Amino acid sequence: MGIEKDIQQHHFQSESQKAMVNLIYTYHWVTEKIKTLLAQDGITLQQFNILRILRGSDPQPLSTLTIRERMLDKMSDTSRIVDRLVLKGWANKRTCSNDKRLVDVSITKEGKRVLEKMDKRMEEMNAVLSKLSSSDLKRLNELLDHIRS
Question: Which residues of 57-87 are buried (b: 16+ CB within 10 A; e: fewer)?
């Protein structure tokens, strides 16, 4: 299936415009697939992202500012999402000892357990890319990095 058929548009002003539309459409398509998998375990994409960030820094806690800088979705309300993770028992929050204006956030054992479960499902999440070979994936990553360079 091509982008023309998917969005029922058969004319683009240029290959550049077509590529941009295709990139945006594909981003949303992949995101929806991942959201559906995560929802089975009661976790949002933003919560998953923050838990991954916290696990990557563990045992060092991170401020909400640092978490926001590392997030894939920069528009997320990090503080609100962290509060939900705390309510679920997946993260801890405490006032930073060095700067009382900041809050330190760390992942809990339960949060790690949730991510371990997600790690096992990662193959399902990665299935959206299963039609690409290893060399295709490498080239895709190179092209995406090149766009942002």
Answer: eeeebbbbebbbebbeeeebebeebbeebee
pLDDT band at 2 (very low <50, low <70, confident <90, very high): confident
- In CATH terms, 45-119 corresponds, of 1.10.3380.10, 3.40.50.2300, 3.40.50.1820, 1.10.10.10, to 1.10.10.10
Average pLDDT over residues 40-53: 92
pLDDT for 1: 60
* pLDDT tens by residue, 55-97: 999 999 999 889 999 998 877 789 999 999 999 999 999 987 7
